[in-house]
Amino acid sequence: MILKDNDKVKEEYLEEEGIKGVYRKILLGLEDGSEEIIMRLFKILPGGYTYFHQHDYEHLVKVEKGRGIVVDGEGKEINIQEGQSLFIRKNEKHQFKNPFQEPFEFLCIIKNPDK
User: Fold this and answer.
1) Hey, what CATH class is 10-111 in?
2) Phi, psi of 22 (to 5 degrees)
3) Measured between alpha carbons, how far apart are the two ends of the chain, in Å?
4) pLDDT per position as a tens digit, 88-113
5) Do 44 and 96 meet the contact criterion of CB atoms below 8 Å apart?
6) CA–CA separation, 115 vs 106, rounded Å?
7) Where are the domains of the chain?
8) What is the pTM of this model?
9) pLDDT (tens digit, 9 = 90+) per residue, 79-93?
10) How far apart are CA 83 and CA 15, in angstroms?
């Protein structure tokens, strides 16, 4: 069994083309011995966004703090906020945005993409 203090997990700023104001923590994953599942915490600063993308694996998303917008595969913007969860299907295009004044934080749980 592995128990970690989330506040002590290293936060990394994602510097990739098409991404702005996004931080990520890998709360539990490969380094902890989890071969199948990875749990990540994302924080999107006000005005920030992820790129519009898709993966060949599912996502489970739970909003931890604040509110944001998720863009679906057809470009429709959907408000999402604390207390809500989201399922993103395999190969479904999506993007997260934060046009609001406070940070937007969410857990994202995925299958190990290398499996």
Assistant:
1) mainly beta
2) -120, 130
3) 22
4) 999 999 999 999 999 999 999 999 87
5) yes
6) 24
7) 10-111
8) 0.94
9) 999 999 999 999 999
10) 29
